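Input record (Table S2, row 418):
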Amino acid sequence: MINLTYEYRIYPDQQQAELMTQWLETCLHVYNYALGERRDWIKSRKCDINACSLGGEYIIPVDAPKPTYYQQKRNLTAARKVIPTLGAVHSQVLQDVMGRLEKAFNALWNSGHGFPRFKKRFRSFTFPQLGKESVGERTIKLPSIGEVIATLHRPIPDGFEAKQARVVRRPSGWYVQLVLEANIEVPDITPSGYAIGIDLGLSSFVATSEGELIARPRFFVEAQHRLKGLNRAVSRKKKGSKNQQKARQKVARFYERIANRRKDFHRKTAHHLCNHAGMVFAEDLNLKGLAKGMLGKHCLDAGWGEFLDTLKWVAWKRGVYFSKVPASGTSQECPACGASVKKDLSVRVHHCPECGYQTDRDVASGQVIRNRGLTAVGHIVDACGAEPAFGGNEAGKLKSNLGKPALYPIGSASGGCH
Ligand SMILES: [Zn+2]
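Output record (zinc ion complex):
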């Protein structure tokens, strides 16, 4: 089974747009209400029996059951019969909101995320089921909303069927993300072919073990200036006026544009890396730890986590083996002889006193990562600088091509909703 997500822009008419906006509002209320119910119950059980807080207590009867996913879902169904605004929304869409809340709580219990927060707005809602043949030539049929005009800029690949749809509202307009499913078994990608290691850094976005340095696009630096100007325009306008609203819109659209450009850059870089390799290894960054540290702001801004996710997905799509390796000390090790070479951040060149190997600091890290990756998948590591294992680039590529599973026609190389 393969799942893909394709995103299409839709152009709802005024009535449809109003309806969808209303749905988003209702979803928001349902989410916050259900969260409130759970939070109050949890708080009511936290008070010691002999010591009440001075400020206030949440008092809920002892025999009141803990609000659970299923129970809240049942209550929702009952409430839909009484409250017309709830009844106006497609039932499965609201059920899905409960699913989102449950997911947030699962993240709290299982992954150490924080307590779910009340939301100020909802940007999307999901239809967990779609009717048969809901994707037409120029329209997408959404349950209860009807046919919406869509730009189907790329066809749905053969053998795939739209199973779910998520409607997203962005500053630039409305979009639909279709989850496409096909009943194909895909073999796992085996590690083979030419290997590269990548080091993510601040001085250059990516340094590969091949000696390639990919810079961060200048756009993001320039964007900061532009944002400052736009935000200033917002604060100059009269509070709550039409003009301030317009200025706010501009800021929102610009943020969307930055996000789009970052995504585009990530995808292009990922495809570029996969062009040259059968295996890609990256360091397993402790992003949370990094963000807390000294370089926090810069690290978050660089979007490494997002890039690694994109790279993983692109590599899978292209039949390239992708894996992460432990990141500790990659910059302090000589890729050629394995000796420990201490250097602080200001030293930009790796020069090994043991074997005399010399190269860019980040490139050396990339090579160490490649070596670690190769060891992890059970390949023999050749010393750096010498010809790589598997007889060079072309032979390696050929081998990896042969090993690729036939997936589906990949139309544009840079496409793909991630
Ligand atoms: Zn050395």
